């Protein structure tokens, strides 16, 4: 209880600029919570491992099975969307360039989701620091202006009040800025690891699709020729 009382007094003595810093702090905390949930709870470093489950089906040319399996798992595994896009391109004989283009399109979109709002933490941290500095300057200006026209007996109290406002604003600005900057480093590192895992899984699938593309094409041509011969025999 005593701590809260001291905190309330410090906030009151900090002057007007304590309120903008409070708004910045609340915004940064909201972003930290949302990003931590998105990157640590909803997303796992398991996309490469998930992609390994498609190797046998791709090598056998079972594109329909690959697409169905990938689409069913796309909600929990972002790499599944890239797998489905690449398999669909391979199924339609789009070529290696089209397979890569379709997969890259999905991977770029998924990687962009990893960085949503995280960059705001550095901005908010810097703004909180600068706002605290602005509160410091404002408090010092107010202090010296009051002292200049005050009675000698009141100068000490007015000067100490102005310095108190300046120091409280500086301290609160740093209190709001430091967690935001630390959280940015942690979240950015997590996002980079998730992106590496996602891209590595996508690259493995692309390599399998690329290697299986020519055999798959030959197999499809052979199957089509066999069907055509059977049809000709039936018609004859």
Automatic annotation (TrEMBL):
Q: Would I find Membrane among this entry's keywords? A: yes
Instruction: Please list the residue ranges annotated as the MotA/TolQ/ExbB proton channel domain.
Output: 78-198
Q: Which InterPro entries match?
A: ExbB/TolQ_transport, MotA_ExbB_proton_chnl
One family from Pfam that matches here is: MotA_ExbB
TM regions (residue ranges):
16-37, 127-149, 169-187
Biological process (GO) annotations held by this record are: protein import
Q: How is this protein situated with respect to the membrane?
A: Multi-pass membrane protein
Q: Does the keyword Thylakoid apply?
A: no
The terms describing its cellular component in GO are:
plasma membrane
Q: Where in the cell is it found?
A: Cell membrane; Membrane
Its main localization is membrane
Keywords in alphabetical order, please: Cell membrane, Membrane, Protein transport, Transmembrane, Transmembrane helix, Transport
**Family designation:** Belongs to the exbB/tolQ family.
What is the name attached to this protein's record? Gliding motility protein
| Protein's organism | Bdellovibrio bacteriovorus
């Amino acid at each position: 209880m005593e701590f809260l009382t001291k905190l309330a007094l410090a906030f009151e003595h900090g002057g007007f600029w304590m309120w903008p810093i409070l708004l910045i702090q609340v915004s940064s905390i909201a972003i930290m919570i949302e990003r931590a949930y998105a990157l640590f709870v909803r997303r796992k470093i398991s996309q490469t491992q998930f992609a390994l489950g498609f190797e046998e089906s791709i090598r056998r040319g079972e594109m329909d099975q690959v697409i169905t399996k990938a689409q069913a798992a796309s909600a929990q595994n972002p790499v599944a969307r890239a797998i489905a896009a690449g398999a669909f391109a391979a199924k339609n004989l789009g070529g290696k360039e089209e397979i890569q283009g379709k997969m890259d399109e999905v991977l770029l979109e998924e990687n962009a989701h990893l960085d949503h709002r995280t960059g705001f933490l550095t901005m908010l941290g810097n703004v909180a620091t600068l706002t605290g500095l602005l509160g410091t300057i404002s408090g010092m200006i107010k202090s010296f202006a009051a002292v200049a026209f005050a009675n000698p007996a009141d100068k000490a109290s007015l000067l100490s009040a102005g310095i108190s406002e300046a120091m409280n604003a500086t301290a609160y600005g740093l209190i709001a800025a430091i967690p935001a900057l630390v959280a940015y480093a942690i979240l950015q590192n997590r996002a980079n690891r998730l992106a590496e895992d996602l891209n590595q899984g996508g690259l493995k699938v692309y390599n399998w699709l690329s290697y299986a593309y020519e055999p798959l094409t030959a197999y499809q041509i052979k199957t089509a020729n066999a069907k055509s011969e059977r049809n000709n025999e039936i018609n004859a």
